Amino acid sequence: PLGALAVLAGIVLVHESGHYLAARAFNISVEEFSIGFGPKILGFEKFGNEFNLRALPLGGYVRFPENFDILDYSENFEIEYSDDPQLLQNRPWQERAVVLSGGVIFNLLLAFGIYFGEIGPLGGSGLPRAVFDDGVIVAQSPRSGGPSDGALLKGDIITGINGGQKQVSDFISTIRDTPDGEIATTTTTSSKPVSTTKTVSIQPQRNDGSTQTIGVSLRPNLEKVERLKSNNPIVAFKLAFEYLLDIFTQTLLGTVSVLASFISPSGSAPGQKISGPIGLIQQGSSVVATKDWTAVWMFAAGLSVNLGVLNALPLPALDGGQLAFVIAEAISGKKVDQKFQEGLTSVAVLFLLWLSVSAAVGDVSGL
Asked: How much is the pTM?
């Protein structure tokens, strides 16, 4: 696992460097730059800042000075805030927005650099990109007596449901959100390219009726896999950006879907759809063990995008949530009350801790 931990620590280092360098560029005071949490293993001081490596390299932080005396923080009297212009809290909203966005921006730049290195004229072998045709393919024969028995066959291509969804996620969402009854599928086969309409029954997948199914597995209609490679730097730049945008979009949609399942009464049990630290290290260790440097770089790029997306979410404990407060200030013309921010952040921290513990439980149960 040391190799995987090194990759993870490297990604965290890039993220925190985005915050730190942005703050330094604006001459904003910084107290500590840390990789990891928990007890300090080693550290040094430079530029008036502490640089530390801590025992648990599963994250990191850049610590800024508070704008009040923590020893005097009490609910019983009015807190006196400092007006020191070097404090992050006292800087113009534009500067705070750049500092808060720095980590996510650096994560995306790292991923882009890796993709460009593989696609462009720097010696990479190129990146595979799947090209999909419309519709989804029935991946297995319907079970006898099931809702699709007699209507669908293995290999059928469903190009529309009740009117015209095109993506796998659209088909699945439509099926799961449809009450008991029937749906009309527009279907073709390789031997019979003419579209026909077939009626398929819907039945509950869960005892409480919260999720519906048509009783077959569906997979994307893969047309081909092309390799992205160009010795033209401009073309490679464009291809790398498109590749990054596609990975970012998929990661964002997947993350939102997982979070929605956690807060939905009918969602899956926590920890069953996401990887926590243990699962992440397992995946990374498997990749590093192959000694395939292209695979290692791709793992690092994907991990960097994931970290960027997670931190961009508008939860108060994350960069995106803090940025949301700054944007609210820019729109309203006045700062969001600091006590209110701290209260929301505390709640968000508890939610993230619960999410992390649930994911870790899922990791352990999957060992």
From this structure: 0.78
